[in-house]
Amino acid sequence: MQNAEPVRALVLAGGGAKGSYQIGVWRALQELGWQPAIITGASVGTLNGCMFTLDKAREAEELWRSLEIHDVLEIPETPSAEERNRFLLDVIRRGGLDVEPLAERLDDLIDEEAVRRAPIRFGLVMTELSTMRSVQCPIEEIPPGRLKDYMLASSACFPALRPREIDGVKYIDGGWRDNMPLRLAADMGATELLGVDIDGIGIVRPNNTGLPTRILRSHWDLGPTLDFDPARAARNIALGYFDTMRLFGRCGGTAYAILPDQDGFLARFAETYQLRLAEVNARAPGIDRVERSARQRAGYPPPFAPNPSAPTRGALAPLELAAERLRVPEDLPYTPKLLAATFMGSFDKDPADRFPALLSGKDSSLVAERAMAAAVPEEFVTALVSAALAEMPLV
Q1: CA separation (Å) from 85 to 79, 81, 90?
Q2: What are the C-alpha distances in Å from 99 to residues 10, 75, 153?
Q3: Which residues form the PNPLA domain (predicted)?
Q4: How far apart are the C-alpha atoms of 278 and 84, rounded to whole Å?
Q5: Contact criterion met (CB below 8 Å) for 282 and 342
Q6: Contact at 8 Å (CB) between 64 and 239?
Q7: Which of these, 156, 283, 327, 390, has the minimum number of CB atoms within 10 Å of its CB?
Q8: Strand 38-42 versus strand 8-12 pairing type
Q9: Is 139 helix (H, G, I), strand (E, B) or coil?
Q10: Catalytic positions, written as ranges
Q11: Cα–Cα distances in angstroms (integers) from residue 216 to residues 67, 242, 257, in the given order
């Protein structure tokens, strides 16, 4: 007897302007052929999820690439001091900012009847203000003609935004009580879950569904919750795309999207780096613990983590950490050699120059440099990577 096909659900968390990341996730999933039968969302995840349900990914991406704060919230563009004070008093008196511009956008983008007919089932969560109870809303339980109200309620990030009143009851952002509605997806019949966490405000409940679950999170800061900016949106879309491709094994790395290593550069780098680290550890015993501390603090794996992708990710980790330290752009794909070359071209003053005693034994400041490395281990790793790459041909 053949196993039944999984009922896949995409679960989109809330996070305001960070929601652009989910556009890149969806684009990658479509390329990979991973099609959900169910989409659930909280807050901005509700808005993105509804667009995906309607097969409006292109329109959603165009929206995010042009979206500015005035397209979402009703705020004065260039207020005088008097107008600003009057505006702030009105915001306090009314209990938050007005999202009427967003409501008008929904009128143009969301066809409720089409959502109800769509092959992907849609659901959202919102929070009842008076009780702070999470309200789970599959599309079938949303009264006809009220989808827009429910979406705006799910997105009402109180106290910054005004509560949404539905039939005399005030509701606020679904993320306040359930920012990653995995349980709703399970209750709607999902047997496999993919969650997209964008570090929004609210509560992410423990996953007690018992279902196979994968969670996507960015290594990078996706920006402020209410800072809608087209340039940041474009960057976050790229990050969502690459992170999804990494989750499905189409690229490597931890923070950067690393393409296949065609010429064995990564193995040569790993060997050179480990030799340099051993040399430094001979001069300053225990410096290897500083190196491990830098990886842990920055969220990178150890050199030999016990999982199938560990040798590659572990070898890449110091190079990625150093690239991050020197702000090598994170929204582009790299081969290991290209990332190394980009890193080496990103500074005027060599990071290795900060640690001449540790790296070369050139002077008597070993104790001071050892203390500096312990205080800022990421700088030490960056210097060590630079010293290792200086011994290797990059062209």
Answers
A1: 9, 6, 9
A2: 26, 9, 10
A3: 10-186
A4: 60
A5: no
A6: no
A7: 327
A8: parallel
A9: helix
A10: 43, 173
A11: 24, 11, 14
Which residue bears the tokens 């919102």?
126
- Contacts of residue 322, defined as CB under 8 A and 6 or more positions apart, other chains included, come to 343, 351, 381, 382, 385, 386
Rounded distance between C-alpha atoms, residue 353 and residue 101, angstroms: 53
> Hey, what are 168's tokens?
């005399």
Residue 252 DSSP label: B
Q: Across the chain, how many H-helices and E-strands are there?
A: 17, 10
Q: What is the DSSP string of 315-362?
A: HHHHHHHHHHHTT--SSSEE-HHHHHHHHHTS-SS-GGGG-HHHHH--
Q: How far apart are CA 126 and CA 135, in angstroms?
A: 5
Describe the chain by its helix, strand, coil percentages, rounded to 5.
50, 15, 35
pLDDT in tens, the chain (395 residues): 456 789 999 999 999 889 999 999 999 999 999 999 999 999 899 999 999 999 999 999 998 888 765 545 444 455 445 444 443 444 334 443 445 556 667 778 889 999 999 999 999 999 999 999 999 999 999 999 999 999 989 988 765 677 889 999 999 889 999 999 999 999 999 999 999 999 988 889 999 999 999 999 999 999 988 788 899 999 999 999 999 999 999 999 999 999 998 889 999 999 999 999 999 999 999 999 999 999 998 898 876 544 444 446 688 999 999 999 999 999 999 999 999 999 999 999 999 999 999 998 776 688 899 999 999 999 999 999 999 999 998 86
Q: Residue 301 is which amino acid?
A: P
Q: Cis omega (within 30 of 0) on the bond before 260? A: no
